Amino acid sequence: MSRTLVVLGGSGDLTGRLLLPSLAQLTALGGPGGDVAVLAVSRQDWDDDAYRGWARDRLAAHAPEVDDGARERLLARLGHVRADVTSPAQLGVALGRAAGTPVVYLALPNTAFLPTLEALAVIGLPAGAQVVVEKPFGRDRADARALNEVLHRLVPERSVFRIDHFLALQTALDVLGLRFANRMVEPVWHAGHVERVDIVFDEALALEGRAGYYDTAGALRDMLQNHLLQLLALVAMEPPHALDDTTLPARKADVLRAVRPPADVARDTLRGRYTAGTVHGRRLPGYAEEAGVDPSRATETYAEFTVTVDDPRWAGVPFRLRTGKALGTDRREIAVHFRPAPGLPFAGRPPEPDVLRLRFDPDGIALELNLNGAGDPYDLERHVLEAPLPPRPLPAYGILLRELLAGDSTLSISDAEAEESWRIVEPVLAAWAAGEVPLLEYPAGSAGPTRPGTADR
Ligand code: BG6
Questions:
Q1: Topology adopted by domain 167-443
Q2: What is the pTM of this model?
Q3: pLDDT confidence of residue 238
Q4: Tens digits of per-residue pLDDT, 436-446?
Q5: What kind of fold does domain 3-134 have according to CATH?
Q6: Counting atoms of ligand 1 from 1, which one is nearest the CA of 226?
Q7: Is 152 a catalytic residue?
Q8: pLDDT digit string (tens) for 392-406?
């Protein structure tokens, strides 16, 4: 069945920075997605050639490693139509140019999702069509419901692909292999042996010119509501009996339903915003001084909360999720902290409990263990078993495009997951908006905000 990838927002940053480079890499590799026709739709007054010129520049900037042959083959498959994507008439004309079955990708600001889906619902889509929606999926649960309602009028749920590129990160997928393909892992993967789980995504990157989007989103909506809750779902879900588009999203939705939002927002959440500072030798202005930022919005660039998973496996185990921008160290990991070993026969101070770390970019796994040290045979020493993982052959967007173009939505966020994730964060958003939790400041390049009156982070 021939398909055309119809990219709404075809001249946007996401398309130029992530989608076109991933399509170029798929073209170079061959296989699904490697020869799909691409029709870009935007408000630019461009013909196909003008669009190809723009795309050529984007590929030179963001996919320099792709060979000339693959790049030219992709450019030859690109077309462009000018349209206001919220106008059913104009969108209808644009879709009329798509050969075969359309895969309609909303690479748009999230405020444009609903009017665009409404426009698509007016014109309708042919059988077999797919719809791909970027993140964040709305601004709250009511928005997510409204989006789901129109999507369900348009195409069946399994033809919807809600993007969360973290699901295609190698380390996220490694959670599945680690948990379900090793006899020694899953039996200890529960509250009886696990004391706490930290899911940390500290970034040295700052705003990087994204005020237009980020200043109305903030760290909680940008990262915790979607990416980090998805990681929590992979870590905490019950074993799926299959890795397919009904089972995996269903297992994740189940565990998200069991997540209790932070019980006490003042104690269980932390928000912050960076002030001027230096990150890796780069001098940064404070977030409030960045171009395009409206400081009165009090947008957070650091967000943290602790939740529990109210099910028999995880009762009482805190899951701390945190992310921040302009931090001194790129620390991106899922850290599973085990309970102390009982009944130690060793004298002296009890050793640190075991920690399993799944690291992102560079990807790797580290297991911190206690072993007998050299010299005194009964003296314990800390050792780390490190396994760096090979670099990924395809970026996360490349994997998602390959999967969705093959008609497989296993790595999509389901309708239920999207709504549950908003349910979890909404009380935090409301408490922060009401000023119940102070917006703390932290210098760019530091380790993030410190809880008032403590040295805690
Ligand atoms: C994006 C967020 O979805 O994920 C960014 O909008 C964030 O703010 C990024 O920096 C992190 O993912 P990655 O894969 O670029 O490290």
A1: Dihydrodipicolinate Reductase; domain 2 (3.30.360)
A2: 0.96
A3: 98
A4: 999 999 999 99
A5: Rossmann fold (3.40.50)
A6: 3
A7: no
A8: 889 999 999 999 999
Which residue type is seen at 354?
D
Average pLDDT over residues 87-109: 97
Whether pLDDT at 456 is above 60: no
347 falls in which pLDDT band (50, 70, 90)? Answer: confident
Pocket test for ligand 1, best of 227, 228, 287, 302 (most atoms within 8 A of CB): 227
pLDDT band at 99 (very low <50, low <70, confident <90, very high): very high
Q: Which two tokens stand for residue 130?
A: 């797919």
Please give the distance, rounded to the nearest whole angstrom, from the Cα atom of residue 306 to the centre of ligand 1: 21
Q: Whose CA is nearest to atom 9 of ligand 1?
A: 223
Q: What is the mean pLDDT of residues 39-47?
A: 98
Cα 152 to middle of ligand 1, angstroms: 28
Which atom, in ligand 1's list, is nearest to the CA of 223? 2
Q: How far is CA 248 from the centre of its chain?
A: 17
- Mutation to probe ligand 1, out of 205, 290, 323, 359 (largest number of atoms < 8 A from CB): 205
Looking at this predicted complex, what is its ipTM? Answer: 0.98
> CA 65, CA 187: separation in Å to the nearest integer?
43
d(C-alpha 351, C-alpha 154), whole Å? 58
Q: Encode 206-219 in three state secondary structure.
A: CCCCCHHHHHHHHH
Q: How far apart are CA 104 and CA 455, in angstroms?
A: 49
Q: Specify binding-site residues for substrate.
A: 165, 203, 222, 325
Q: Which residues line ligand 1 (CB under 6 A)?
A: 203, 205, 222, 361
CA R_g for the chain: 23
Q: Which residues contact 372 (CB under 8 A, 6 or more apart)?
A: 378, 379, 380, 381
Query: Quick one: tokens of 233?
Result: 């779902």
Instruction: Express each pLDDT in 239-268 by its tens digit.
Output: 999 999 999 999 999 999 999 999 899 999
Q: Spell out the domain ranges in the chain.
A: 3-134, 167-443
Question: What does the block give as tokens for 268?
Answer: 């269980």
Rounded CA separation 319/335 (Å): 10
Q: What's the gap in Å between 64 CA and the centre of ligand 1? A: 21
> What mean pLDDT do residues 380-390 have?
93
